[in-house]
Amino acid sequence: MRLRLLVVGRPRDPSAILLHDDYAARLRRLGVHYRSDCVPGERAGSRYSDAHLREREAAALLDAVEPGEKLIALDPGGTQWSSEELAARIEAWATPAACLVVGGPLGLDPRLVERASVRWSLSRLTFPHELVRVLVAEQLYRALSILRGLPYHRGSP
Predict the structure, then answer these.
(1) Strand order in the sheet with 118-120
(2) What's the domain range around 130?
(3) What is the pTM (predicted TM-score) of this model?
(4) pLDDT in tens, 53-99
């Protein structure tokens, strides 16, 4: 099982990086091949329109998706699942490999979203991208804990 988180922009908040990396290490201890990569973000307010910036970021994201990876778009218009529902889907996504894609501050280009096999919405709320990395890694760990019968999920609020 291979899971990869691909985000626009490099994380900078040290506390968010540490928290993400903790969940990444937990996933690896479960035998999951997990990694997080980033592509450069485009600067909003430049000479390009927002739509053009999203297109440029989408091109960089799609170039970074590896052969055989199922494209999962983190998109506010996607489906929201409970942790148990996510657990029921995760193995199908990640066998053999899944690439979960997070856009920049302007979101994902609609054409990239259309190409995705799955559209997943974490919430209707808006989160900072660095926090999204943490939330995704934690939810992946939670889903695999559920599948493996580990007490992590049962002991959480």
Answers:
(1) 33-39, 2-8, 97-102, 69-79, 118-120
(2) 2-148
(3) 0.92
(4) 999 999 999 999 999 999 999 999 999 999 999 999 999 999 899 99
Listed residue (105, 133, 109) closest to 36, CA to CA = 133
DSSP code, position 104: B
Number of domains in the chain: 1
Answer yes or no: is 90 within a domain. Answer: yes
Cβ-Cβ contacts under 8 Å for 4 (sequence gap 6 or more): 34, 35, 36, 37, 66, 69, 97, 98, 99, 100
Question: Which of the four pLDDT bands, split at 50, 70 and 90, describes residue 155?
Answer: low
Domain presence at residue 156: no
Q: Which residues pair with 36 in a beta bridge?
A: 5
Neighbours of 64 (CB within 10 A): 15
Domain for residue 50, yes or no? yes
Whichever domain contains 104, its CATH number is 3.40.1280.10
What residue type is assigned to position 120 of the chain?
Answer: W
Predicted confidence (pLDDT) per residue in 102-139, tens digit:
999 889 999 999 999 999 999 999 888 899 999 999 99
In a domain, 144, yes or no: yes
